């Protein structure tokens, strides 16, 4: 891993040179973990052309020293030294400083700037995130492990889909099984919705009870070493109407149309167009979700965001989701989502839980 972190840091420094910056203040938790290996909180990173610093406090000092790769750990006494003063102490010979603008509020940045009186600052967005779009072999392995846990947990949950089960109970059971299988937490708050509530793309599980003929939509993920999986399945319990079948088959066809053209060099918007063409040709296009998918890794929704305005061209090492959906208010919805690795030649599906419509 040491070599991997050194490569990431070197790539970051190259980008700093290209942007004529002397240093970068790393404020995003996922960005700092990506560059240093530190998995805790309340920490800030400084990348210069010849040194790396991680500033934290006594709560995380030991953890940082154990986890960080090629970072000098600075333990700040929060009662005696402001964050801005501490940052300034470690910016020797720095005149132009970029900062992770998406991960700091105005009041905090103003306080830091008061100490950086002789340093020109520049807001930076997406610099490290662009690096993170292409996963290395270790990152791919973690995502595959997280996806395998999700697959197994859902397989174990299937017998629990019976009349009378509540959304909340099944969500909790699924979460328990993921963590029992080794997930270090939840990739995000589990979505488990029945019947007409399945039209809520990001609804919160409640006390709705499952009945025969109900739609079921569940969206969930596991986490391994910070790397997340993200999978959605939609089912119906026992019996389905012709309209429900039509909706489900439309989403299946839209997802497959997008997945089957994935390969390096493909503009991601073409996958969006392929799925959208299927959705718009159906009766249900006006109820289709606007986006198609997103990158996934240390953060749930990473770049690229795949939609009508996406200008990214797929590269080997991208891990993206493909997740078309149809959401009809007061009736129900269907979404199918899989994690896809872009390989040197085409693609590999990482999530393998089956997709039977009727269970």
TrEMBL record:
Keywords noted in UniProt: Aminopeptidase, Hydrolase, Protease
CDD domains: APP-like
One MF annotation (Gene Ontology) recorded for this entry: aminopeptidase activity
PANTHER family for this protein: AMINOPEPTIDASE, AMINOPEPTIDASE YPDF
Protein name: Xaa-Pro aminopeptidase
SUPFAM superfamilies registered for this protein in UniProt: Creatinase/aminopeptidase, Creatinase/prolidase N-terminal domain
Domain Creatinase N-terminal, first and last residues per copy: 8-134
Ranges for domain Peptidase M24: 143-344
Species of provenance: Pseudoalteromonas denitrificans DSM 6059
InterPro entries tied to this protein: Creatin/AminoP/Spt16_N (IPR029149), Creatinase/aminopeptidase-like (IPR036005), Creatinase_N (IPR000587), Pept_M24 (IPR000994), Pept_M24_MAP (IPR001714), Peptidase_M24B (IPR050659)
Entry keyword Hydrolase: yes
């Amino acid at each position: 891993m040491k070599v991997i972190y050194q490569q990431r840091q070197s790539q970051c420094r190259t980008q700093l040179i290209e942007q004529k910056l002397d240093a970068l203040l790393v404020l995003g938790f996922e960005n700092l973990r990506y560059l240093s290996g530190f998995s805790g909180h309340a920490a800030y990173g400084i990348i210069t052309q010849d040194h790396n610093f991680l500033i934290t406090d006594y709560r995380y000092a030991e953890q940082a020293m154990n986890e960080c790769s090629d970072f000098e750990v600075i333990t700040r006494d929060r009662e005696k030294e402001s964050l801005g003063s501490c940052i300034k102490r470690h910016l020797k010979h720095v005149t132009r400083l970029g900062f992770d603008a998406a991960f700091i509020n105005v009041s905090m940045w103003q306080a830091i700037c008061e100490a950086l009186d002789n340093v020109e600052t520049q807001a930076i967005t997406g610099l490290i995130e662009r690096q993170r779009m292409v996963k290395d072999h270790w990152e791919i392995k973690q995502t595959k492990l997280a996806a395998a846990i999700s697959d197994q947990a859902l397989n174990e949950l299937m017998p629990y889909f019976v009349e009378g089960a509540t959304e909340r109970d099944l969500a909790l059971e699924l979460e328990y099984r993921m963590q029992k299988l080794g997930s270090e937490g939840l990739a995000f708050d589990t979505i488990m919705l029945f019947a007409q509530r399945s039209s809520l793309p990001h609804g919160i599980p409640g006390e709705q009870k499952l009945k025969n003929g109900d739609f079921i939509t569940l969206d969930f993920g596991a986490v391994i070493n910070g790397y997340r999986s993200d999978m959605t399945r939609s089912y119906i319990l026992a019996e389905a109407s012709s309209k429900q079948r039509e909706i489900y088959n439309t989403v299946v066809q839209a997802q497959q149309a997008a997945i089957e053209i994935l390969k390096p060099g493909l503009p991601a918007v073409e996958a969006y167009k392929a799925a959208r063409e299927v959705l718009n040709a159906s009766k249900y296009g006006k109820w289709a979700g606007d986006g198609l998918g997103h990158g996934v890794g240390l953060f749930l929704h990473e770049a690229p965001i795949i939609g009508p305005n996406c200008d990214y061209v797929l590269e080997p090492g991208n891990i993206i989701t493909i997740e078309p959906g149809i959401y009809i208010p007061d009736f129900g919805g269907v979404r199918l989502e899989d994690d896809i690795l872009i390989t040197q030649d085409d693609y590999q599906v990482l999530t393998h839980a089956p997709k039977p419509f009727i269970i």
